[in-house]
């Protein structure tokens, strides 16, 4: 039955989009994103590759119903490390869901069903192509997934919003048949005289909880790579985030400057054994002009607070040159590991981003 449901999701399905077309039976290419890169890492050979690549289409059946299908690299799924090693660098279905939308007396509601983006913090919910800095350590280490099969309800009223998702948790084949809940609640508004990405206030918190069994965390040939727990036993998981995005810095340069703060706390329980994860990041972005922007991040994560010497602290800085429409940009990014851990290594990244949105035919 689960396999049949999955096939139905993908057949009907189709990435999250901004707003609904008022024309029935409209097909749109919502996004085409290609990000080739060249990277030089400390102790490694130079590397060419694709950081992200996706094509997303949407079919507006009517003003209330939409189907969304996204094809892209397997890293867009981002299955958590507790379920094994990262998937091979393949191209396949990254999103596939149907969506129902309604607005009534200032309240908007969305219901999504299928393979969909999870809403957890500021980096979640399908942010590919919208951020100048590479994913934070929380997503580099795959503490939480990016997308999964499930049912999601989103609601907004005035400046308040809420997202709640019931999902498999494994971001892939449902081996243990256990459900997870991931939710995000917050308050958001435009904080400047210009309606720009840098002028948005966003304050809230997110949470994700669920359980695992050895069926999914200790697979033959692909056991868990998460050191926080014993993968041969069942476990209960909790992860929370508090976040804040503000225009400017204490009221200064609010039209050009953007700051983001996230603090994470995780816990895993196995009988009488408990362990914790702690981390956070602080991003500062400055839009020098319509074509040039700067970004900086201080990032930290301690994946196992009971184990000494495994904390990672990273400093990242990026310079982005692009066109006014945001269709293409060249990003030069450098990251430095501030601890003695070998992972992640210091890296210099040159990324060329092509990002086209809302192509209608």
Summarize this structure briefly.
The chain is mainly beta.
Report on the architecture of this protein.
The chain has helices spanning 2-12, 137-140, 214-217, and strands spanning 26-41, 47-60, 65-73, 91-104, 107-117, 147-157, 160-167, 180-190, 200-212, 218-219, 222-223, 235-247, 257-270, 273-287, 292-302, 312-322, 328-337, 347-360. The chain is mostly beta strands and 361 residues long. It has a 16-stranded antiparallel beta barrel. A two-stranded antiparallel ribbon has the order 10-11. The radius of gyration is 20 Å and the shape is globular. 37% of the residues are buried. The model is unreliable at 1-23 and 192-196 (pLDDT under 50).
Report the C-alpha radius of gyration, rounded.
20 Å
Give the biggest beta sheet: 16 strands, antiparallel, barrel
According to DSSP, the number of beta strands is: 18
Low-confidence stretches: 1-23, 192-196
Layout: helices, strands, pairs:
Elements: H1 2-12, E1 26-41, E2 47-60, E3 65-73, E4 91-104, E5 107-117, H2 137-140, E6 147-157, E7 160-167, E8 180-190, E9 200-212, H3 214-217, E10 218-219, E11 222-223, E12 235-247, E13 257-270, E14 273-287, E15 292-302, E16 312-322, E17 328-337, E18 347-360
Antiparallel strand pairs: 1-2, 1-18, 2-3, 3-4, 4-5, 5-6, 6-7, 7-8, 8-9, 9-12, 10-11, 12-13, 13-14, 14-15, 15-16, 16-17, 17-18
Summary keywords:
55% strand, globular, disordered N terminus, 16-stranded antiparallel barrel, 361 residues
